[in-house]
Design a protein that fits this description.
heterodimer; A: Nucleotidyltransferase, domain 5; 2 domains; five-stranded mixed sheet; 10 helices; 43% helix; B: alpha+beta; Phosphorylase Kinase, domain 1; Transferase(Phosphotransferase), domain 1; three-stranded antiparallel sheet; 10 strands
């Protein structure tokens, strides 16, 4: 009983192997991003070139043979179409060849679920922050799916940080470069946009980009982080009190930022709420989270016939049926 | 002062001012954000809310009277009534609610969190409360969102009553309702409620 999961929604081709909730392997091949950003077709080519090798590595690390795989999962979306397609086809080929069940998985859901799993949380409020997504999530057990309590009105916080980092002339990975520079910065006021449990980042981005020539880089990085993270904290705090959650977690690529985690921790602490985040290897895109969710879904009989295993660039988390 | 309520935005304390029962709405510091940003947000929001309350009062929209304003605190009249959410009011009352929201909108204010939990029935008059997210704005969108929230928090027949009050002698009715139709079609704004 081992399930293999494939993640390929963006620049990472990840393969994980999970056996009864134990993560046996979590291998990744990462496309090197330049200042051009990601060209979907080029990234997909990279995935095609690396798919077989990454799967082999994951099997060898988990000390399993391909015949030991009893189920397959892949990221259905959201993500870049050409990239998703590589993962989808790899997974379908494996399922067909091995004659095992297959299940498509929602990417954001997998981020929250793996965080719950490794941090030992039961029913947390989840702040999911990555390049394309920024959402406040809570599992609705009656509806068998996550509901979105709040989200960005425009761009994901990761995209905002990346775009600002490029405007500053920094190299990839922009988020961690900004985090380093921010340590020596002072606060400059920037637009702050929160509406209830929703938020928006483009106003902040435009203003910050306009200040690149006149202000110190350190100050701008500090202020962009402080302002955008405070927005996330405020919206999350509101959702926390409204949903009466007892636990809070942060997940997704931007969850690797220590200042964001620190702020959320302080906020949770004031309400006597447990706060957790997963180790970085699970906050960046990875196959283990897909394998983990796929195993749970397959054990609940949520397998999908091969001819209905598609991908969907805008697959929303609140459309994804999940039985936890 | 006794803390009687509080959300993410502010704490509510009960107190006495000039022998009158009053509420103090205090925007407490948030330790997670830098002080300069925290002070600025709490100050501007306190000022904005006080301004909104004063404006509505001048325009005869039933809101709690502002008694005093500090940097981070608003002292206001304590209303003796029942939240509309918990009140057992006849259908006709919802027409009055519609009138009040109409007057608020035409005074240039969008509430920002317009639900039955933010209206208090004092005798036979609906009072609008908790204007912490309210804005003085010409935005049709914000007003349409208020109506959308009311629609979601009322049943169909009460909403019809509400609308008949909202549309009555309201020159902006058509504009707001057209925008509401657009918003619902757009689907980006999914109104999310718990409970």
């Amino acid at each position: 009983m081992a399930v293999l999961g494939i993640e390929s929604s963006a620049h990472t081709f990840g393969v994980g192997v999970v056996e009864r909730g134990r993560i046996l392997a979590n291998e990744k091949s990462m496309y090197r991003i330049t200042n051009k950003g990601m060209i979907p077709a080029e990234v997909a080519e990279f995935h095609i070139a690396n798919a077989a090798g990454t799967i082999e590595r994951a099997l060898s690390v988990s000390k399993l043979h391909i015949e030991d795989i009893t189920g397959v999962g892949y990221t259905r979306g959201p993500g870049l179409g050409p990239c998703l397609q590589v993962g989808q086809l790899s997974a379908k080929t494996m399922a067909m060849k091995l004659n095992v069940p297959i299940v498509p998985v929602n990417h954001g859901l997998a981020h929250v679920e793996i965080t719950k799993h490794v941090a030992g949380l039961k029913d947390p409020l989840g702040l999911y922050v990555s390049g394309g997504n920024s959402q406040i999530l809570k599992f609705d057990s009656a509806a068998h799916r996550y509901s979105v309590l709040g989200e960005t009105f425009d761009i994901g916080i990761g995209n905002m940080l990346d775009a600002f980092g490029r405007a500053l002339g920094l190299e990839h990975a922009w988020g961690s470069e900004i985090e380093k520079l921010a340590m020596r910065g002072r606060y400059i006021q920037l637009p702050y946009t929160v509406k209830g449990m929703d938020f928006a980042f483009t106003g902040l981005l435009t203003k910050a980009k306009g200040l690149v020539k006149s202000e110190k880089r350190e100050d701008l990085c500090f202020s962009v982080q402080e302002t955008s993270f405070a927005m996330l904290c405020e919206a999350t705090e509101r959702a926390l009190l409204l949903s009466k959650s007892k636990e809070l977690c942060v997940c997704g690529g931007v969850a690797q930022n220590s200042r964001l985690a620190e702020m959320l921790g302080i906020m949770a602490d004031e309400h006597g709420i447990r706060f957790a985040r997963a180790p970085n290897e699970y906050n960046s895109d990875n196959g283990a989270m897909i394998a983990l969710v796929a195993e749970k879904m397959l054990s609940k009989g949520l397998e999908v016939p091969l001819d209905r295993c598609d991908f969907e660039q805008r697959y929303r988390i609140d459309e994804a049926v999940f039985n936890g | 002062m006794d803390r009687i309520d509080g959300g993410a935005e502010a704490s509510i304390y009960e107190c006495d001012i000039f022998g009158v029962k009053a509420l103090a709405k205090v925007r407490e510091p948030k330790r997670y954000r830098v002080k300069i940003l925290d002070d600025e947000l709490r100050k501007t929001r306190t000022r904005r809310e006080a301004k909104v309350l004063a404006l509505l009062m001048l325009k005869n929209v039933p809101v709690p009277a502002v008694l005093a304003v500090g940097e981070y605190v608003i002292f206001m009249e304590k209303l003796e009534g029942v939240l509309l959410r918990d009140a057992d009011k006849g259908k006709e009352f919802y027409e009055k609610v519609g009138n009040v929201v109409r007057d608020m909108h035409n005074a240039g204010v969008a509430h920002g969190d317009m639900t039955t939990a933010n209206i208090i029935a004092v005798g036979n008059t609906p009072y609008v409360i908790d204007l912490g997210l309210a804005e003085i704005t010409v935005s049709v969108e914000e007003k349409a969102l208020d109506i959308l929230l009311m629609k979601r928090s009322l049943g169909e027949s009460l909403y019809a009553k509400f609308l008949s009050g909202y549309s009555d002698r309201n020159i902006n009715y058509k504009t707001v309702m057209n925008r509401l139709f657009d918003i619902e079609k757009r689907g980006r704004y999914q109104v999310r409620t718990l409970q």
